[in-house]
Design a protein that fits this description.
alpha+beta; Beta Polymerase, domain 2; five-stranded mixed beta sheet; elongated; binds adenosine-5'-triphosphate; binds magnesium ion
């Protein structure tokens, strides 16, 4: 890329920040990820500027920088790692906050974790030397000089001390300096190596392109130091893992995490599937199938939760496997898998929302549907169970499962029929809230005390309405509730159990089907 083109790609906001620092007598260089992305012809996600100005000096220079809010402070400094955040007036997300960081070297790496203490450095060279990979350790020098006609002229130069440009060209991820030492200082860098591998290996036009690799010595150092990941906080591991999962090369990333010995410290449960053969419905091992399902979800650009659910949907299979060969079974793997998924995601400190959603998708991924076999009431029960809002995502996980099996069965016709059935019943009542009678009505009509009996009767009424939505009328439900009120709590509980069993229809019939096929 020519220098003129490179210069044109630098947003005016960045040029202005550099110039402002220069005019105050300080050095200022765009550095790290943004330089890498620019040279790769990709749009940087954020911009980092390295400077020899100290945090206090940066704050002073940019105190009321924004023209939109001249009275308000433009900088944020939370006293962490010497980085001052500069708020700008830009409407572009990547430029709303520019990070300006004082040159620094990190010290006190005794425990393989990100250092708690930092030391400021005098030179850009020192600052570049503390960065993780050669492709992330380049900076730009932008000179702004007035020529003899007093016209401003900008000049740009790439500062590349560690061979980052060559490594970018050859698609190589390699540490700055001695790999063993660098991973010893901060073990998270090993996961970052894999994350960059996944992010840089993208899909273009649907096919997987490019072929980034992690350099041999760097790879060996990761294998040697993988155990140090055990000392890294789960939150940092979660964040790097999430970025890997959200990247286009996520499938390759997950394979690399395993090949380099890191998966053991992230999701050890997934490793249980390696070498575990499945029955005649599959050609791949459990591990391979999980990873391929993820790959499919990624190729479709599905959401984070769907990607995780695809990767984890069969995590319970190794622990539930029964028998060997074509007729082996994995009964209840979706329950066991959902439990394991909950533990995996909670251990990694994912939010309650993410955990709930993914666990739910894993739990219900195995629904069974066959045209003519499942009744409309069955479809209503299915909706009541999985929640109408989860149906789309569940079908996507199911699709990833199907394609990832390597021998996709003819499902689309059945799927279309299920969607047709869902559409048909989607306005029917499937929750107590949708009944034409509520708890207060029951208490009043039947002179009941508020308590569990009210809930039991409501559930029994819902069951009646799920069987026949036409019964969702106030008079009918009043009559039915009078009859139900004569039953004892025990009898009502039995009714509930019967309804629970009916809810299993979608799943139990799947087992029945398998059993029928295999004559077991
Ligand atoms: P992106 O922002 O696209 O995820 P990035 O390369 O900008 O990628 P950041 O995590 O934002 O990554 O870090 C910015 C820069 O800081 C990196 O390019 C690298 O030079 C340096 N850096 C970040 N984390 C580390 C680390 N753990 N060890 C050494 N250097 C690091
Ligand atoms: Mg960045």
């Amino acid at each position: 890329m020519s220098k003129e083109i490179l210069l044109k790609k630098i947003p005016k906001e960045i040029l202005e920040v550099v110039k402002t620092l220069n005019q105050a007598g300080f050095k200022a260089h765009p550095v790290g990820g943004c330089v890498r992305d620019l040279i790769l012809n990709q749009e940087p996600k954020d911009w980092d500027i390295a400077t020899d100005a100290l945090p206090e000096e940066i704050q002073k220079i940019f105190f009321d920088y924004r023209k939109s809010e001249p009275q308000k402070q433009s900088t944020i400094y939370e006293n962490n790692f010497g980085t001052v955040g500069l708020k700008t007036d830009s409407l572009k997300d990547s430029l709303k906050l520019i990070e300006i960081t004082t040159f620094r070297i990190e010290s006190d790496y005794s425990d393989s974790r990100h250092p708690e203490k930092i030391k400021f450095a005098k030179t850009l060279e020192e600052d570049l030397a503390r960065r993780d990979f050669t492709i992330n350790a380049m900076a730009l020098e932008i000179k702004n000089e007035k020529d003899k006609n007093k016209k401003e002229n900008e000049e740009i130069k790439i500062i590349d001390i560690f061979g980052g440009l060559d490594d970018l060209k050859n698609k190589i991820i390699k540490t700055v300096g001695n790999s063993q030492d660098r991973f010893g200082e901060d073990a998270l860098r090993m996961m970052r190596a894999v994350r960059f591998l996944s992010q840089l290996n993208d899909y273009s036009g649907g096919a997987r392109s490019s072929s980034w690799t992690i350099e041999e010595t760097t790879q060996k150092a990761i294998r040697d130091n993988a155990y140090l990941l055990g000392k890294i906080s789960k939150e940092r591991i979660r964040d790097e893992f999430s970025k890997t999962i959200m990247s286009d090369g996520a499938e390759q990333g997950v394979r690399a995490l395993q090949n380099l010995g890191l998966m053991k410290y992230i999701i050890p449960e997934l490793i249980e599937g390696i070498g575990v053969a499945q029955n005649k419905h599959h050609i791949y091992t459990v591990w391979e199938h999980n990873v391929l399902a993820l790959g499919y979800a990624v190729s479709k650009k599905y959401s984070f939760e769907i990607r995780l659910a695809s990767l984890l949907h069969d995590v319970g299979k190794p622990r539930t496997k029964n028998g060997e060969g074509a007729n082996s079974t994995f009964y209840q793997h979706e329950y066991v898998g959902a439990k394991m998924t909950k533990k995996i995601l909670e251990d990694l400190k994912f939010s309650k929302e993410v955990v709930e959603k993914v666990v739910h998708l894993v739990r219900y991924h195995l629904f069974y549907y066959n045209v003519g076999e499942v009744t409309e009431a069955g479809v209503r029960r299915f909706l009541a169970r999985v929640g109408p809002e989860n149906v789309d995502d569940l079908l996507k996980v199911r699709e990833a499962d199907r394609i990832g099996s390597g021998v996709p069965k003819a499902f689309p016709y059945k799927l279309r029929h299920l969607l047709f059935m869902i559409d048909k019943v989607k306005r029917d009542p499937i929750s107590p809230k949708m009944l034409k009678i509520n708890g207060n009505d029951l208490i009043k009509n039947l002179s009941l005390e508020p308590g569990p009996k009210v809930g039991h009767i409501l559930n029994a009424l819902l069951e009646i309405v799920i069987e026949d939505p036409l019964k969702n009328k106030k008079e009918i439900l009043e009559k039915e509730s009078k009859a139900l009120n004569k039953l004892s709590i025990k009898e009502l509980e039995n009714l509930r159990k019967k309804a629970e069993n009916a809810k299993e229809e979608f799943e139990v019939s799947a087992e029945k089907e398998i059993k029928k096929k295999h004559k077991v």
